[in-house]
Amino acid sequence: HGKENVDSRHSRGRGGETTRFHTVNVAQPVRFSRKCPTGWHHYEGTASCYRVYLNGENYWDAVQTCQRVNGSLATFTADQELRFILAQEWDLEEKAFVRKDQRRFWVGYQYVITNRNHSLEGHWEVAYKGSSEVFLPPDPIFGSAMSEKENVLCGQLQCFHFPTLRHHGLHSWYAENCYEKSSFLCKRSQTCVDIKDNIVDEGYYFTPKGNDPCLSCTCHNGEPEMCVAALCERPQGCQQYRKDPKECCKFTCLDP
């Protein structure tokens, strides 16, 4: 994108001959705002994508679903990341939750019970070791579907529907029977997404989501890099025209 008009200029060359410069479009720096597939929420602080699934699966099935999309059940590295999750509007269906104002979903923690005497005692662990910087939740609320035989419970994060509660970061942690069915939160690394919303593998060329269908970039660590822009000549014999936002150098003539 850039200049639309054709600008002809003249200058004097070394041998005295006239050199004609014919400027068509001038490529501009491009900012890429989309680094996650459709349906995922991007957080710059961790370069990660997040998505809530409403399937109503038990913990182990939820783990497999997240793995199929190159992710895992979400764990959190800092309070800011958790606050980002709590502030999101997840487009969730009310029927997926016990109460309309509350939302609970599986996350990547398990609570290991070490003592069942007078009160339940135990500690949180990360279900799947990924980052050494993951923080562990505080003492949980124990779910209603607990079994006396189970020594491992699975983590649920509860947040709230009402915007005022959500933006104040109010939430609770539950330790629940792992075979209960619940919505769940997946987390994956940010990725390259092309202009047609396809996920692009590392090292491949693609046209990123944005305003310029004439860019060709290389996918590197989930970011478009080494981008090259094709410069399009305006359609001949057409005074008014419109660029196609999805195809490079394709125009629609608007003349009568």
What can you tell me about this protein's structure?
- This is IDD protein.
- With 256 residues, the chain is mainly beta.
- It has 2 domains: 143 residues, Mannose-Binding Protein A, subunit A (Mannose-Binding Protein A, Chain A, Roll); 60 residues, no CATH class.
- Helix content is 9%, strand content 38%.
- The strands form 5 sheets. Strands 3, 4, 5, 6, 7, 8, 9, 10 and 11 form a 9-stranded mixed beta sheet that branches. Strands 14-15-16 form a 3-stranded antiparallel beta sheet, with no helix packed on it.
- The protein starts with 6 loop residues before the first strand and ends with a strand.
Key descriptive features of the protein:
256 residues, mainly beta, Mannose-Binding Protein A, Chain A, 2 domains, 9-stranded mixed β-sheet, 3-stranded antiparallel β-sheet, 9% helix, disordered N terminus
SSE topology sketch:
Blueprint: E1 7-12, E2 18-23, E3 41-43, E4 48-57, H1 59-68, E5 72-73, H2 79-87, E6 102-115, E7 121-126, E8 141-142, E9 152-160, H3 163-167, E10 172-176, E11 182-189, E12 192-193, E13 199-200, E14 205-206, E15 215-220, E16 223-229, E17 241-243, E18 251-253
Parallel strand pairs: 6-11, 8-10
Antiparallel strand pairs: 1-2, 3-4, 4-11, 5-11, 6-7, 6-9, 9-10, 12-13, 14-15, 15-16, 17-18
